[in-house]
Design goal:
The chain has 279 residues and is an alpha+beta fold. It is 41% helix and 20% strand. It has two domains: 25-92, Orthogonal Bundle (Arc Repressor Mutant, subunit A), CATH 1.10.10; 102-274, Beta-Lactamase (2-Layer Sandwich), CATH 3.30.450. It contains nine helices and nine strands. 30% of the residues are buried.
Length: 279
Amino acid sequence: MTTRARPTKARLAGLGRGSAPTERQGGDAFQVRALSRGLRLLGLFSVDHPEWSLNELSEKTGLHKATTYRMTRTLEAEGFLVFDPSTGTYRVGPAAVPLSFLASAQSELARIARPYLEQLAELTSETANLAVEVEGSAVVIGQVLTSHPFKPSLPIGRILGDLANSHVKVFAAFKPRAERERILQHPQPKLTPNTVTDLSAVREELETVAREGIAYDVEEHGVGICSLAAPVRDQNGEVRATLSVVAPKERFDPQEMKRYAEAVRLVATAMSSYLGYRG
């Protein structure tokens, strides 16, 4: 049975009255303050400063020392921090390693995709996006904006979680049938008058996406904004990412849609080949 380590003098140093807290005020109403504090602590660790004492963390963040102690103990219990009693300092723990690898992999993918995004934006004269799947949602990690004055876009880091979006449709369409059915069991919100929520219609659309290799969003996710996306596959044939074009409705007529689809397929195929896909 694992026994939780008892607080040591090194851990408890400076936990007296200390200075008054100077924590941030305001913020998003949906923000979890305790989580925000913990992430602020983790954000201090870097290659240049890999270890921090309790006092240093408290002084740097402006959090009361008792609050800082509770935060570090929680992060330690979850494996995100490790305490070294010989130095009285904390360092990043093993639980943070998978996240760092994920961030590194996505950063590398965004770097690889840059010339393909530029090519796609040049071919279509519209904004080009790159997204990856994280926990069932699509996350935008790369983008090249259109030269048009009106630039509809999805901010880097934007999380897209519903099937009204073309990126999400692609990721869902290329999953095994059983997993696709599980996704379909989640109710789809009616985001716009064009959002398709009928289960049978959505299922049929995903089958079409899987067959044709292209997904459309014609004002389904947002009024006045349209997009289409195609899969980017790796050497194992897995959908590694999606490439898309996004444009306002007035630049998304049937003729333009056909031209955009050809461009997205062309560039997604080229990037897939670079990643080793030979299908």
